[in-house]
């Protein structure tokens, strides 16, 4: 399906297409009968910072930024509609910018490695 056809059928997809076109990577999770029930995306910044988005539907999305530490420190987070969280992500200053968030508000889980 083309991007135009997808956004005509599901206008909220325009937000995901915008960040995909900006270079974000995506994985589909929890596929049921060939249809993803959750999509996760991420952007890895130099220095270990990571921006991430989780989408379950057009009204259930979450975005966050983590620092490069282990376990990761969450320095920014938004929840709400897909359009809202992507708009917030796109306006978030790059790590290292003067107004970029740096204060760790929460800590994510340790990544298990075999």
Gyration radius, in Å = 15 Å
β content, as a range? 35-45%
How many domains would you count in the coordinates?
Answer: 1
Tell me the span between the first and last alpha carbons: 38 Å
Q: Let me know the number of strands.
A: 6
Low-confidence stretches: none
Mean pLDDT across the residues is: 87
Bin the helical content. 10-25%
Please outline the major beta sheet: 6 strands, antiparallel
Give the helices and strands as they follow along the chain. HHEEEEEHE
Assembly state (oligomeric): single chain
- Class derived from helix and strand content: alpha+beta
Shape: globular
For the biggest β-sheet, the strand order reads: 1-2-3-4-5-6
Number of helices: 3
Question: What does this protein look like?
Answer:
- This protein is globular.
- The model has no long low-confidence stretch (mean pLDDT 87).
- It has 3 helices and 6 strands.
- The chain has 114 residues and is of the alpha+beta class.
- Helices cover 23% and strands 38% of the residues.
- The protein has helices at 3-9, 13-21, 82-91; strands at residues 25-32, 35-44, 50-57, 60-66, 73-80, 106-107.
- Helix 2 (13-21) packs parallel to helix 3.
- The protein has one domain (3-107).
- The protein starts with a helix and ends in a 7-residue tail after the last strand.
